[in-house]
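To assess whether the prediction recovers the assembly geometry, we first specified each molecular entity separately, as shown.
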Amino acid sequence: MNKSQEWSLQSIQTEINALHHKPGALLPILHALQDRFGFIPSEAIPLIAESLQQTRAEVHGVISFYHHFRTTPPGRHVVQICRAEACQSVGARQLEAHAKARLGVDYHQTTPDREITLEAVYCLGNCACGPSIRVDDSVRGRVTPEAFDALLDELQTRPLEVMA
Amino acid sequence: MSIRVFVPRDTTALALGADAIANRLAREAAARGEPITLVRNGSRGLAWLEPLVEVETPTGRFAYGPVTSADIPALLESGMLEGSVNHSLALGPTEDIDYLARQQRLTFARIGITDPLSIDDYRAHSGFVGLEAALALEPQGIVEEVKASGLRGRGGAAFPTGIKWQTVLDTPADQKYIVCNADEGDSGTFADRLVMECDPYMLIEGMTIAGLAVKATQGYIYLRSEYPLAKEVLDEAIARAEQAGFLGENLCGSGRAFHLEVRLGAGAYICGEETSLLESLEGKRGLVRFKPPLPAIEGLFGRPTVVNNVLSLAAVPFILAEGAEAYASHGMGRSRGTLALQLAGNVQRGGLIELAFGTTLRTLMEEFGGGTLSGKPLRAVQVGGPLGAYLPEAQWDLPLDYEAFAAESAVLGHGGVVMFDESVDMAEQARFSMEFCKVESCGKCTPCRIGSTRGVEVIDRIRANHNREDNLALLHDLCETMVDGSLCAMGGMTPFPVQSALKYFPDDFQRAANGDRS
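The predicted structure of the complete assembly is given in tokenized form:
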């Protein structure tokens, strides 16, 4: 589950300061920010640029080049569906269509209740037991449409608040 | 002493519920008054049997699989903890499982046997013997050993590893680097992941030996972000190796240094291309560089750099420990040693199969794989990842050898073998190859950046029966342009699966996308 913290300029700067001395520090900094806040706030760009003596355009260029980095907050869970060949051969295309229909969103979109962000991924390295999906940091194998529905129910079950 | 029970914790076993099995086993065994010692080992690579639970007995380890949590009570009741084979999931002694017994495991000799993070386990299974041998040699002596082994790059290009190392050794510099390409992005491949999750010290040892060979003191493992578990395992293994003196300022008390750090990629397939990878490590967009200069001369931060695949580096400890001849005695022609094949896709018995070069694809798919998972006839097989050709039945008797594949415009690549049954639409697969290139192109050169977009459009027009013959001619022409004009293998090889689909499965391009013959 997404355990992201609220960001602040100060907390962003703290993450940058912890890593900016490393050779080739930009990717490690971007990972640290996304791991902590769930995404890379646009306000981070000038701070990173200043710390690394780069232009804002360079930092923005790197963020937008890599599929992994996001600039808007994700839903409570990120679900990635493998679209690569090994999974295709055991029904990933059907699973993909099913997931989009069930969630009512396309790739790179989040359900209106902000529960699930759907993403495509090209290989999770579980190619002998596909179709594979990744839910946050855990991979699941042999995911049929029925298994996908069961998983969604599990993810979306939250205890109701009971009035004392 | 309580009985040792092994429940693997690699990504595949976990993806199929290994954690729940481990928990339930511990609970139920305790409730029965039979306390066990749980070991979370790596995977044996028999993916179709995962989660594969093993029990240690006086006569060796006995296997059970594929186990689900619900099977645990009955398995315990059947006498599993004594190695009993009175249950339908009982497989007998692990080492006797045919799939495993028929392999030639040199690189993967330890995998699944040990606790991946235990240095004691690693040492008890010949770990760090190669490093000790390397420490007794001069750098040139290490390079000679790797040259004599005949080891060629396992990432796909198959360049002789020893020659690359020689270039770096011969190039003077104030700092040199060892970079491990762990951006295993090819669909159908998971051998690098297994090394990193299940035997991380082997990679650490291989990189350290490389560092000693070329006088590099800093190494980076460039790991794809899709492998979070490998990151966790490697980080912990590096910390423990430093603690134990197998990494750091003073390797095994020799006074020589090697430092290692894991760097995460960020979901860009192109960063598996070595120059793009180096750009990414430097904190830039992963744009492919022009060659020359070669990375061996001007690589990371402009310094001489060895860039090797995980499997190339993982083969090195064996070569140093057992001698070049022991490695080179396996294989055929110029392909020496063993190849880690990964059988995937629509297959009954998928998994990791390490064999000497020279076996045929058919042997692999039928005798090991047992045919398709669906039970329908096998129709096409893609070898070597998304840039590899689709091979029809006429080519399944090809020996797995770099040169034999190259002669048929096919590639072994990283050893991924993805099987498709008769339901596959090869025009759709060809479209996907172009679509994948469109998504993953770094954008530096025009044939790849624009060609892939146009490729998707042209295939769509063919499938919609719009000027079919003209568009087929255009697609052939476009493929040629991409092969001849692209800067790197991404654009230069994307046409391979497309051209092979056109050549061997032309009927699929003669029907509409909805499957009707036109």
